[in-house]
Amino acid sequence: MVTNPKATGTPLDCQIWLKSLLRRGGKVAIPEISDYEVRRELLRAGLLRSLRRLDNLKQTLEYIPIQTDTMLLAAELWAEARKMGQPTADAKALDGDVILSAQARLLCDEKTEVIVATTNVAHLSRFITASHWQSIG
Predict the structure, then answer these.
(1) Do residues 57 and 3 touch, judged by C-beta distance below 8 A?
(2) Of 51, 60, 50, nearest to 18 (Cα)?
(3) pLDDT tens digit string along 31-56?
C-alpha cells in the first residue's frame, strides 16, 4: 500500500502512518518475504511506478533477509497449524504468512518490540500475539 503513487483511503493512511513512524525515529524494516509478495504482484500487473517506489523503500528502510533460523521456525509453525487443522495456505504453497510470522517472532525480544503492519490479520494472528499488531485505517 505504501508504494501506491496515487494512494487514497487505506493506502494513503498507511503512507501517513509510515511517515509518522519515521519522523518519530521508529525503525521500520521490509521483510524479504513481504518484498517478494508485493514485488511479484507489481511485476504481474506492470505497475512500474509502484515497483520503483518499492525499490526506493528498500534503499531507505532496513531490509530483513530470510535466514535459515527463520525457515526452520516457519516449518515448525506450519506443521503445528496443519496438525491443529488450521492451514493458512494450500498444502503445496510456500506460505509467506508463516515465514513472516517466524521472522517477527525471532526479531522480538525483551528490548525489541516487533509490529507487523498488515491487512491479513486472520492468518498471521495464529502465530503472533495480538500485542504485535498495528491497525491502519
Answers:
(1) yes
(2) 60
(3) 999 999 999 999 999 999 999 999 99
